Amino acid sequence: MRQFIQDIAENSHYRATHLLQILRQVQSRYHYIPEEAIAQLSGLLNIPRTQIISVIEFYSFLHLTPRGQYELLISDSITDHMLGKKDLFDYLAKKLDIAVGEVRKDGLVSLDNTSCTGMCDQGPAGLVNGYALTRLDCAGIDKIAELINQQKPLNEWPSELFQVDDNIYKPGLLLSQQIEQGAALKSAFKRGIKETLKEIDYSGLRGRGGAGFKTAIKWQFCSEEQQAERYVVCNADEGEPGTFKDRVLLNSYADQVFEGMTVCAAIIGARQGFLYLRGEYLHLHDKLQTILDQRRQNGLLGNNILGAGLYFDIEIRLGAGAYICGEESALIESLEGKAGVPRNRPPYPVTQGYLGKPTVVNNVETFLAAACIAVNGGDWFASIGTEKSKGTKILSISGDCAQPGIYEYPFGTTIQTVLNDCGASDVLGVQIGGPSGTFISNQELERKLAFEDLATGGSFIVFNSSRNILDVVHNFTHFFAHESCGFCTPCRVGTSLLKKQIDKIVEGHGSAGDIVALEELCQLVKNYSHCGLGQTAANPILTTLERYLGLYENQLKEISFEPGFDLDGALEIARRMANRYDAGAHLAQTDESGSRPIASLPPSLAVGE
Amino acid sequence: MSKTITIDGKVIPFEEGQTIMEAATAAGIYIPHLCHQPEFTPHGSCKLCTVKVNGRNCSACTFPAMDGQDVLSETEELIDDRRKITQMLFVEGNHLCPGCEKTGNCQLQAVAYHLNMLDNHFPLFYPDREVDASHPDVMLDRNRCILCTLCVRASQQKDGKNVFAVSGRGIHKHLIVNSDSGLLKDTDLEATDRAAHICPTGAILIKRTGYRVPIGERIYDHKEIDQVSLEAEHVKHGE
Amino acid sequence: MANKIRVATTSLAGCFGCHMSFLDIDERMLQLAEVVEFDRSPITDIEHCTNCDIGLIEGGVCNSENVHVLREFRKNCKILVAVGACAINGGLPALRNHIPLEECLNEAYIEGIGVEKPKIPSDIELPLLLNQVHPIHEVVKIDYFLPGCPPSADVFWKFLTDLIEGREPSLPYELVHYD
């Protein structure tokens, strides 16, 4: 092990910024991070061991205790559940003779849940040693169990288990015409860098991650910073459940994305770029690396790009299972090899980003669009869309529709049009923008995709009338509690409290005051959390409470109060140990002897009234 | 003309580079806080110091003062919500004041008193957390840790060490110490370190000193934290 | 004196320290007795409460009997008050929440030093322990909270006089203590 650690540390030039990448390799080799590795890395990278432990304990894919030689993770996204995840998961656990969250006694295999793996159009999905598994079914699980028990190396597993399709059903402005490698850069140099920024400005392009900050302004700000070193970062950490468009863009349009990054580098004056690829997309890593190598060979990266004197290169950095790293400042922390905890702002990344230097962070789709704009000009893009939302939006559509996949629409398109195209006729509601977005009911299908109306990062999940909205809310609320980074009180504690409160209501233990308590808590988490995660973590509850209050109320008991824990269950141990089977050894969950209404407070108790 | 901001209608001056918290403190205005200590880089995590700046919630300890800002702090809404945030800190840990040496000197308790917090409001988590009594002079009781990271910062910024760090994610976040054994006794922490004295709660305590001042005669038994906090600042500036 | 205010009190998983502190109102008790009569309480020996205005509960909920008593109070008291640290957050009895109940019972009745005739008591007269101690607001709705271990006599006095005189009860800074 010593040599292995020594080698990877040396390959990383002993830089602490590579800690996460190094730990990924150790995890991949040993299926955990052994104590010896921590001690050795602490010395080699000259960082305290606590820093290493805090990184390991932050990311879902890193472990301090051994996982199986085959680490199986099954995606827990609502879309996987809609495709029968629960039964499959049980089947898998039984087949492998393993409990959830555990390592089998022989150490061969471990099984657990993981947040959405971005395969919502081809789920139920999972990961084995980080590699994506798609379209899981009983036959596939039988095969996987057999392969594991035979200890077959992953490269000998049948490729269909790992087959990931693009499923592009409706290409639009950006997806219908691939631009030639180098075309965007050539156009940009020919037109002039400043003019190219102007074109991007004319295009009206806004960030595609969901927040919608104007791209040209961000680039302009960054270019005006008084610092020599600047960075370009492509945020490919699409962790929003229901989103998978970046997976497709990087699989089939990577050249354009890299080209967009290079154009950005030329404009802001950056020499180094990063593609922060979510760990779930490990299967794309080598392919992307090859494309980068090609670009270097073709003079599109590296020294003196296209003879224009520009130096720029791109490094791929992998995430390790943390939704929060999609938040740009958390992503930058992660790039620096640390836990992905969002920074205080200001300063914003454009002034102090990676290593404190001015940094542009944009979504994959934004860079793709920028490359196309560099070729075709700003008007080409701006002629499509609405007043405040120019161009098109690429959607990842999943859930109850005939053709889940990738669809590109001009901004301003109605939800109904989208539903017609993807073959969704029975629609209860649509989750726009993923759990952090908005749940709209079937009464709102004429609403439009646009920053003015329904802003979205691209997640579009359709629910038909057989779905239970509270199950959806339950899944999303658990997701946020699991993904909260824990930095600030309102989100750290609040998302866990939301989880408890929604469980109480969904499990039928809610009583009169519980919805008021739920809403009050939602507002607290929303208004006081440090970053977007906490500020949107209550959206699944708030947007459904607004539309389906009756659904929540139906869950409530007709009483004034019910405990949030199982009273009779809490007596089980004592009952068993005392061998008590009499009626007195049990407790009803609520006082069934009839409660009388509680007086409103404070009643005047003044004597003599 | 010096630049000014308005806090709850009161116009106060500030110097370029000051945070809202710094400007407020200098002007004798207390904004509740726990993870903030003027000598250390602000952290902005406890969110107790949330104020409304031109209608938007911001952490006063990290947000820069800017000319003309209209800041609201002591509104009914903010006070109520600060109380709830304090209640969150109480329910996520195990804060049993009657059995804690720090009672009466505890800032978590004092902020709660200041906000007239009478109950926990939320269900209690009763988490399992480790106590580390291994160090000869310093006690670490994670049950009372509120993850303010003041010990982390004090160790790095004042003691030139790296004794503490925060690890884990979400509700599982916890304090760890820098030694192979994971125990405090094997770190280079000394009882004279600033980090050993900075804890706002009773999570890090100096052994054998807990009851030198009897309960009932302690800092917050008779003085509110707003007064104590502002006085401490003014003493430091020789006022 | 038909319109005297009826007050009931009890201690669940508590130490009666809050009751002792209540008695510390000393001679003010006479003043109180003019407008208040005690229903179920350790100081009256009444076994069950009926139609009370105020119920004062000391202690948290650690066993099935606590649940029954708490429910009786909730049903029969217009205003139910959590008195003291244990009622509010489980207090010291809740220290056992970190030890599995199985271990607690084994230690106390089977394996502990000095245990003779090791056996877990089993009698229908004995309440069963809940696996964790809970504050009372997690089991019934509570209207007011009086913190302290115990709350001082002045806290009881201030709270009751506020209520009796028709004011919204409030505690000034010097009366709020958790220790």
UniProtKB/TrEMBL annotation, chain A:
SMART domains with a match to the protein in the record: NADH_4Fe-4S
Keywords annotated in UniProt: 4Fe-4S, Iron, Iron-sulfur, Metal-binding
Domain NADH-ubiquinone oxidoreductase 51kDa subunit iron-sulphur binding span(s) in chain numbering: 470-515
Leader peptide range in chain numbering: none
Region (Disordered): 589-609
SUPFAM superfamilies: Nqo1 FMN-binding domain-like, Nqo1 middle domain-like, Nqo1C-terminal domain-like, Thioredoxin-like
One Pfam short name: 2Fe-2S_thioredx
Family annotation (Gene3D superfamilies): 3.10.20.600, Glutaredoxin, NADH-quinone oxidoreductase subunit E, NADH-ubiquinone oxidoreductase 51kDa subunit, NADH-ubiquinone oxidoreductase 51kDa subunit, iron-sulphur binding domain
PROSITE patterns xrefs: COMPLEX1_51K_1 (PS00644), COMPLEX1_51K_2 (PS00645)
Domain of life of the organism encoding this protein: Bacteria
Bilayer-spanning residue ranges: none
Cofactor: FMN
UniProt similarity note: Belongs to the complex I 51 kDa subunit family.
Name of the molecule in the record: NADH-quinone oxidoreductase subunit F
Species: Candidatus Methylobacter oryzae
Upper classification of the organism: Bacteria, Pseudomonadati, Pseudomonadota, Gammaproteobacteria, Methylococcales
TrEMBL record, chain B:
Occurrences of domain 4Fe-4S His(Cys)3-ligated-type (ranges): 77-116
Name of a matching Pfam family: Fer4_15
Residue stretches making up the 2Fe-2S ferredoxin-type domain: 1-79
Record's keyword terms, sorted: 4Fe-4S, Iron, Iron-sulfur, Metal-binding
Gene3D superfamilies on file: 3.10.20.740, 3.30.70.20
Family: Belongs to the complex I 75 kDa subunit family.
Entry protein name: 2Fe-2S iron-sulfur cluster binding domain-containing protein
Provenance organism: Candidatus Methylobacter oryzae
Automatic annotation (TrEMBL), chain C:
SUPFAM superfamilies for the chain: HydA/Nqo6-like
Source domain of life: Bacteria
Cofactor(s) this protein requires: [3Fe-4S] cluster
Metal-binding listed as a keyword: yes
Annotated keywords: 3Fe-4S, Iron, Iron-sulfur, Metal-binding, Oxidoreductase
Residue ranges of domain NADH:ubiquinone oxidoreductase-like 20kDa subunit in the record: 15-162
PANTHER family cross-referenced by the UniProt entry: COENZYME F420-REDUCING HYDROGENASE, GAMMA SUBUNIT, HYDROGENASE SMALL SUBUNIT
Protein name as catalogued: NADP oxidoreductase
